[in-house]
Here is the input.
Amino acid sequence: MVRPAGRRAWWRRNAVALALLVPAAGALGWVTSEDAREGWWAIENHIAVTPGPGGWASVEDTMLRLVSFERVRTMPDDYGGTWSPPAGYAAWLVVVDSRSEGDVVRLCDVTLVDTEGRSFTAPAQVPPMPVYQSGSIQCGMPNPGSEPAQPGSRGELREDVFRSEVLVVTPASAEPAEVRLSTWATDGTGFGPRYAALPVP
Here is the structure.
């Protein structure tokens, strides 16, 4: 059994080494995490691109524009009935145009951010409806091998512009501030650290 006097002596002998251990461990962690930090900075969304002329935000070779943003009380479903958000929630219809000079298909995640900084995406569980219910939309070059989408489905091809609709559900108390369009891909179809930040009207 180590006596209290022995413990105090041990702490005194090793005080300097212990004091240096904390910053040394911190420095080691900082150095070993450099690749992870640089990787995050290069690909994770943290640079907002706001709209310019005509309401278009230009990110890489893609231009994105918020066409309309409105609260909807009911929507027709695919069964001939109607759908309403649950009590205490609000549904918002986000309509986005995109066009690209690129030659690859790009997907964008649609996120609604409120004035408190909370993020909301398309709900996972709703009755089948004409509005596409994925949180991602086609926001780059439409696939040349596919037929133009029909109005009211995933999107609509209008000349060189691709229009998409997404329904987002939030708590009724949320005050929408911004629609964000971002990519998660790390290859040539991604936006890297940039994302389109489109203020809601």
Summary: Residues 112 and 179 are 5 Å apart (CA to CA). The radius of gyration is 25 Å.
